[in-house]
Amino acid sequence: MDGFPRFDLEGQIALVRGAARGLGNAIALALAHAGADIALGLRDVTTGSELVQQIEAMGRRVLPLQMDITHLDQIQSAVDQAVAHFGRIDILVNNAGLGPSNLAENVSEDDFDLTLNVNLKGTFFVSQAVGRVMIRQNYGRIINLSSQAGFVALPTESIYCMTKAAISHLTKCLAVEWGTHNITVNAVAPTFIRTAGTEEALSDPAFYADTVERIAALHRVGDPMDVAGAVIFLAAPASSLITGDTLLIDGGWTAR
């Protein structure tokens, strides 16, 4: 019988930015496992050799790209190279993000500007560059990385929280504008996930205990593949009627 939901990505081309480690690394591997060929948007193109080997071992094509999103010329160059190499871009995962911690009264202008440039400005202009490609081909799936921090207040994270809330609303705006071109735009919003970036905080027993307690329903810290699974769903044909949504992957944190 035809018409069952499809979750494979065979024949698709995915661009994953911030793929060198953590969530981006897991997402790139999961997309390749689902059948996609992968363009890797890397802040430093020399850091992706191990990931390239892992993706090639799955029998998938892979292209590492220099893509420091604080430099708009690198964004356009990376997108142009991906299209020249693969012929199209079907899936974009906007993963790169940061957030220097500080009390609101002590936030510096440099930290404010850097957080907005990477988390928000970078996401917009990568989406714009890839969106133009997707409009021409009349197909695309864009998945942005928001955060539960866009839905709850986290002390010392005011600027990070602000940018992640903005990502969720930008997701809606792009979904409305580009839906007529058969492009869906969604976001995922993870809770604390075990990565190199959270290792120090989660190694504090008091912080870890408080975090697990706040993850009210499941009482466990997430793993990168918990996020990758949601990205695969939103990239797959099975989710073709879902757009403008932000999927919380928070173990029940925001359900309290």
Topology of helices and strands:
Blueprint (H helix, E strand, L loop, with lengths): L12 E5 L4 H12 L3 E6 L6 H9 L4 E5 L5 H15 L4 E4 L14 H29 L2 E6 L12 H21 L4 E8 L8 H4 L2 H10 L9 H12 L10 E4 L7
Parallel strand pairs: 1-2, 1-4, 2-3, 4-5, 5-6, 6-7
Task: Provide a descriptive summary of the structure in words.
With 256 residues, the protein is an alpha/beta fold. It has a single domain, classed as NAD(P)-binding Rossmann-like Domain (Rossmann fold). The chain is 44% helix and 15% strand. It has 8 helices and 7 strands. The chain has a 7-stranded parallel sheet with strand order 3-2-1-4-5-6-7, with helices on both faces. β2 (37-42), α2 and β3 (62-66) form a beta-alpha-beta unit. α1 crosses α8 (224-235).
